[in-house]
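User: Run a structure prediction on this.
Assistant: Running it now.
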Amino acid sequence: MVRFALCLSPLLLALVVACAGRPADKDKDLAEAVKAYNQHQRWGDWQTASRWVAPDRAAAWLQARQSAGSVRVADMQLLQIAPGTPADTQAIALVSLSWYREPTMRLETGTRRQVWTRLEAGWRVTDEGSVAAVEPTVTPASGAPWP
């Protein structure tokens, strides 16, 4: 029994050290925060998603999401995370969304631009809005269809 305990001790010590070395707040990492925020929205868990909204905006954000009760997110995909200005405290995330409203069930798609700012508590959404559709810069010859 003593031999078993001696063999198990280094393993338990390694486990304790490994767990202690993990950051307590995973959202200090921008990519993890963006993924978690959008994933909770994907599943309609507004209360948890509001954790990643800047404290001064969280209550209004949560109220807006809860009042749009018939909207369901069907799919969400992180397209890009780019540095903002200044790069060490701000970033822009582009997220593609597909959603529908009950009872129509008509699928709609769009792209959201999320401004993330590093606050004392970690990365938080400080602004969010829709990205307008990109207009083509070249028009087809008279009457010719777009390819």
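The chain is about 35% helix and 30% strand.
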